[in-house]
Amino acid sequence: MNSPFAPTDLTDARDGALSEPLTLANARLVLPDTVLRGRITLVDGRIAAIEDGDGVPPGAVDCGGDYVMPGLVELHTDNLERHIEPRPEVGWPHLPALLAHDAELASTGITTVFDALRVGSIHTGKAGYGAYARNLANELLEARAAGHLKISHFLHLRAEICSETLLEEMAAFGPEDRVGIVSLMDHTPGQRQFRDLTSLKAYVAKKRGMNDIEFAEHVANLKQLHARYGAAHEKGAVAEARRYGAVLASHDDTTADQVEVSARNGVGFAEFPTTREAASACRAHGIAVMMGAPNLIRGGSHSGNVAARELAEAQLMQIVSSDYVPAALLLSAFQLADIWENLPMAVACVTRNPARAAGLEDRGSLETGLRGDLIRVRPAGKTPLLRGVWSRGERVA
User: Fold this and answer.
1) What are phi and psi of 386, to 5 degrees?
2) pLDDT band at residue 6, thresholds of 50, 70 and 90?
3) DSSP string, 165-203
4) Where does the signal peptide begin and end (predicted)?
């Protein structure tokens, strides 16, 4: 994870009020390298002690042998956008959407999220779209400052290289905005995720109701935008990430050459590489690979790209994102545990590894001194049942 970027003040941010002391006892504690039968105590929202044994001290919560593990860390989710626009062209009031999004993530065990917001708009063509990220970010930060949110929120700016207004939209953000991640998104037709125009057409036609002529015009417009702005937007987005103090991520790298460019840009982790070739190249450059939990759980990519399981079996992935299904993140950890026969290693993919990739050293692991973000899980066959969620020691689900 070789990024020169690091969030400037994110690790010291205090989320939520300090909680009462809490001890979870008679639990299977998922530590970084082992599973320990014991108890964990939180004081002032941080892990104060980890002890072995199955005893239950007075006042402690008896977990009855359930797993206790770190709260999940989500680096890339479209879930907030789904709440503010539940159907195409159907807007929803932002504060209720933010609260519903926050509560949904808490209910799935996610205690830290980097909310993905698109920057870069297109004002030409039928499939154009306008700017929204700055206003929504303001409302999110205000809700956080007011104490309305259950879990810890940061911003992830999805920089659309193939757009008209990327750099002016990014200029509206600064180091004070909790921008932890900037990902370079190049959705130009004919490459990366949309090498196959058939899958792009099916997606756009369903979402925007395009006919064949309109789709051809849409593709031509995007290619023209890339030719006009692509190089300047990529260079500018990298510079803006540095100005924010954010970690830089690539998106949908497909070839070793594309990974080489990502490495030169200082990318810290790769979101959803589409081929094994790209994932292997990431390993060679020390770039962590993130794959989608839906891909893993469904047994393959819905876009025909490389299967997450294939990369897992080849030890070519280190991070999992829920992507568009928040509840998939916890389930993916237990599926990886079956593949690797190593629960701590699997849990790290949804806790410690994403936290470290995003520059957060204060969470993601059961270690004394770290944030008291915990989840309690009871397996039901191969399905994990979430029995409790704590954010800085305060129960939120």
Assistant:
1) -80, 120
2) very low
3) SHHHHHTT--GGG-EEEEEEE---TTSGGGSSHHHHHHH
4) none
Question: What is 260-279 written as a DSSP string?
Answer: HHHHHHT-SEEE--SSHHHH
Amino acid code (one letter) for 5: F
Q: Are 11 and 142 in contact (CB under 8 A)?
A: no
* Residue type (1 letter), 370: L
Length reported for the chain: 397
Bridge partners for 250 per DSSP: 184, 270
Please give the C-alpha separations between residue 375 and each of 67, 79, 218, 316, 380, in angstroms, as whole numbers. 8, 21, 45, 27, 16
Helix (H) or strand (E) holding 200: helix 197-208
- 295-349 tens-digit pLDDT: 999 998 877 899 999 999 999 999 999 999 999 999 999 999 999 999 999 999 9
Contact 320, 314 (CB under 8 A): no
| Strand, helix or coil for residue 22 | strand
| Helix axes of 94-107 and 133-145: crossing angle, nearest 10 degrees | 70
Cα 172 to the chain's mean position, in Å?
23
Cα distance between residue 15 and residue 151, in whole Å: 7
Distance CA 75, CA 29 (A): 24
How do strand 394-395 and strand 35-43 relate by DSSP bridges? unpaired
How many helices (H) and strands (E) are present in the chain, helices listed first?
13, 16
pLDDT single digits (tens) 7-23:
444 544 445 556 789 99
End-to-end Cα spacing for the chain: 32
**From CA 153, how far away is CA 167, in angstroms rounded?**
24
**SS3 label, residue 167:** helix
CATH code that applies to domain 22-395: 3.20.20.140
- Residues 338-362 as b/e (b if ≥16 CB within 10 A, e otherwise) read eeeeebbbbbbbbbbbbbbbbbbeb
Apex CA 182: angle with CA 178 and CA 187, to 5°? 145
Residue 161: both structure tokens together: 């290289």
